[in-house]
């Protein structure tokens, strides 16, 4: 039975914790030739340079080789080949498929037709589980643990898939959630229901202000212009949800600011030098987490 | 009145009668049960008057006893339909419909960006809540509630 990673909900709490432990070992010793003689296919049906480079760095550090494409226009899907045929064909060549696709559910489908494991590197607005694992890793590394933390999520909580997956994954660790967003981009009711069902506390706010002084983690997200029908509203919101260095003055010393990147205006550049800014380090953690996931789905670690 | 209407379609010795199907759902029920592929004798009546529904449809299939899985598919379309098992001209059993926990190839995903709407894939859904009926797509993981659920 092959072990794909399509959705963060595919993994139990125990599996998540074990993967984070492995990621820590890869951070201490990144170059481990576990994948010697293995071929990994990175199939990017839509471009995502950041994610692709992170995965390919992980494969290289593990001593594996890479085939693939970084844009669907250079693949046979542009000739009308079905996803199933592309995946079947690549399954013949590679030991593992890392896949990014603009359609939701594409990775789940690929994992069902592939004869090798599939790692989802993002399927439309649905899931991006290695992003979630690297967020968890970053939280654990900066806080020392994952339990009972005050997690503030800020910005686009309606469409932001990273916050939805993070919410579900953090659900294992009895967090206190705080959602800060404009009314148009509030956390959808199904995720609040998820919290209610598990007895997880959450509070909703409209404003980014001194409320954040009790935060352990401030998870910022990008508010995208295309989400607004009224551009005036966007301009207003864009400034209200922008984090400035001054706002961090009275926050907890253990507070860390996370962001899945790329950021635009939601974190002012004057925050970058603050020791509480963690978003660039967070991105590097992605390589170690992806090393752990790759080694795990291929059965090199358990 | 009712009994006369029913008699207009042939009496059944052995088989299944599906009654009280809303008229606008009748042919969809025919379709999801794949009745067009059955060699059995089938009688279909529609737009019959009904005190409960105003207008109803009825399906009689000789020598056919559906599996629970098939029966439960009907529940999505016509939750109040009534299913009678006939043996030797007598109603032997009345079955109540129950929405199944999961179903394949019946519902179309309402998410236009779902892979099942772009590739030749058999859809699969899980019921996450019965009241109101809420289902989750196996592929895109999107939830759909009651009215949003579209039969293929």
Question: Key terms for this structure?
Answer:
heterodimer; A: alpha/beta; Rossmann fold; five-stranded parallel β-sheet; 9 helices; 15% strand; B: alpha+beta; Alpha-Beta Plaits; 2 domains; five-stranded antiparallel β-sheet
Task: Briefly summarize what is shown.
The complex is a heterodimer of chains A (302) and B (152). Chain A has helices at 13-28, 49-61, 83-93, 106-113, 129-143, 161-170, 189-198, 231-240, 279-297; strands at residues 39-44, 65-69, 96-101, 118-123, 150-154, 176-180, 201-205, 217-220, 256-258.
Mind explaining what this structure looks like?
The complex is a heterodimer of chains A (302) and B (152). Chain A is of the alpha/beta class and 302 residues long. Chain A folds into two domains: 31-127, Aspartate/ornithine carbamoyltransferase (Rossmann fold); 130-283, Rossmann fold (3-Layer(aba) Sandwich), CATH 3.40.50.1370. Helix content of chain A is 37%, strand content 15%. A five-stranded parallel β-sheet of chain A has the order 7-6-5-8-9, with helices on one face. A four-stranded parallel β-sheet of chain A has the order 2-1-3-4, with helices on both faces. In chain A, helix 1 crosses helix 5 and helix 5 (129-143) packs across helix 6 (161-170). Chain A is globular. In chain A, 47% of the residues are buried. The mean pLDDT of chain A is 94. Chain B is elongated, with a radius of gyration of 17 Å. The longest helix of chain B is centred in the middle third of the chain and has 10 residues, at 68-77. Chain B folds into two domains: 2-95, Alpha-Beta Plaits; 102-151, Roll (SH3 type barrels). In chain B, the strands form three sheets. Chain B has a five-stranded antiparallel β-sheet with strand order 2-3-1-4-5, sandwiched between helices. Chain B has a four-stranded antiparallel β-sheet with strand order 6-8-9-10, with no helix packed on it. A two-stranded antiparallel ribbon of chain B has the order 7-11. Chain B is α+β, with helices and mostly antiparallel strands. Chain B is 16% helix and 38% strand. In chain B, strand 8 and strand 9 (134-137) form a beta hairpin.
């Amino acid at each position: 039975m092959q072990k794909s990673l399509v959705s963060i909900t595919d993994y139990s709490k125990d599996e998540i914790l074990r993967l984070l432990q492995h990621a820590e070992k890869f951070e201490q010793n990144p170059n481990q030739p576990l994948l010697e003689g293995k071929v990994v296919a990175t199939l990017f049906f839509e471009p995502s340079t950041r994610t692709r480079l992170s995965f390919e760095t992980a494969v290289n550090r593990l001593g594996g080789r890479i085939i693939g494409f970084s844009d669907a226009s250079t693949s046979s899907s542009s000739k009308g080949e079905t996803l199933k045929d592309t995946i079947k064909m690549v399954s013949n060549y590679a030991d593992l498929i890392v896949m990014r696709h603009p359609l939701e559910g594409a990775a789940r489908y690929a994992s069902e037709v592939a004869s090798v494991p599939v790692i989802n590197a993002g399927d439309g607005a649905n899931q991006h589980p290695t992003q979630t694992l690297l967020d968890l890793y970053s939280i654990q590394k900066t806080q020392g643990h994952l339990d009972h933390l005050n997690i503030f999520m800020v910005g686009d909580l309606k469409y932001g898939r990273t916050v939805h997956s993070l919410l579900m994954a953090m659900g294992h660790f009895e967090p206190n959630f705080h959602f800060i967003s404009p009314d148009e981009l509030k956390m959808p009711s199904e995720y609040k229901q998820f919290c209610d069902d598990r007895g997880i506390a959450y509070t909703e706010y409209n404003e980014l202000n001194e409320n954040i002084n009790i935060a352990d983690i401030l998870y910022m997200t990008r508010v995208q212009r295309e989400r607004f029908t009224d551009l005036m509203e966007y301009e207003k919101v864009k400034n209200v949800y922008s984090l400035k260095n001054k706002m961090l003055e009275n926050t907890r010393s253990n507070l860390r600011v996370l962001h899945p990147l790329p950021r635009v205006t939601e974190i002012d550049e004057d925050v970058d030098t603050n020791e509480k800014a963690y978003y660039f380090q967070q991105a590097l953690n992605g390589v170690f987490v992806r090393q752990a996931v790759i080694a795990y789905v291929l059965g090199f670690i358990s | 009145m009712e009994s006369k209407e029913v008699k207009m379609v042939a009496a059944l010795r052995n088989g299944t009668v599906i009654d009280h199907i809303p008229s606008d759902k009748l042919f969809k029920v025919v379709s999801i049960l794949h009745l067009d592929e059955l060699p059995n004798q089938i009688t279909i009546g529609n737009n019959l008057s009904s005190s409960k529904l105003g207008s109803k449809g009825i399906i009689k299939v000789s020598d056919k006893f559906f599996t629970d899985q098939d029966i439960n598919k009907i529940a999505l379309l016509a939750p109040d339909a009534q299913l009678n098992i006939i043996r030797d001209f007598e109603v032997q059993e009345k079955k109540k419909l129950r929405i199944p926990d999961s179903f394949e190839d019946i519902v179309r995903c309402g998410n236009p960006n779902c892979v099942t709407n772009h590739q030749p894939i058999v859809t699969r859904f899980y019921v996450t809540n019965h009241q109101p009926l809420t289902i989750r797509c196996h592929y895109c993981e999107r939830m759909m509630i009651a009215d949003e659920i579209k039969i293929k």
